[in-house]
Amino acid sequence: MKSNIIAVLLLALLSISTLAQDYSRFSKAVFSYPKGRYHEISEELRTFLETELSNYKPIEVVEGDNLVQSKIEYIESTNGEVGETAFPKYFPVSMLKEMLYQNGMKLQGPAEDL
């Protein structure tokens, strides 16, 4: 089962990274979590959200009314369209950082800084 989860997460990462051909494509992102359940987000992810977001383009953290699980939405610069990735309670922060980097959300530094 753990290998199935890892495989699904890797496929999600690959599908998102193939979208990232233009680092100016997305102007901002919105990280949403289920209402009243911020404490259920992994400590690693909460720490990332509370300390490292200044290294990225604007990322809003909001409480969502009708969410079952957390998600991140990328807002396109040109037309405002939204690309979305939902993820389970435990989502490796290293994978989230890679997704943000691949989608052009990191402000500075090479991929090795991830």
Automatic annotation (TrEMBL):
<protein>
    <submittedName>
        <fullName>Uncharacterized protein</fullName>
    </submittedName>
</protein>
<keyword id="KW-0732">Signal</keyword>
<feature type="signal peptide">
    <location>
        <begin position="1"/>
        <end position="20"/>
    </location>
</feature>
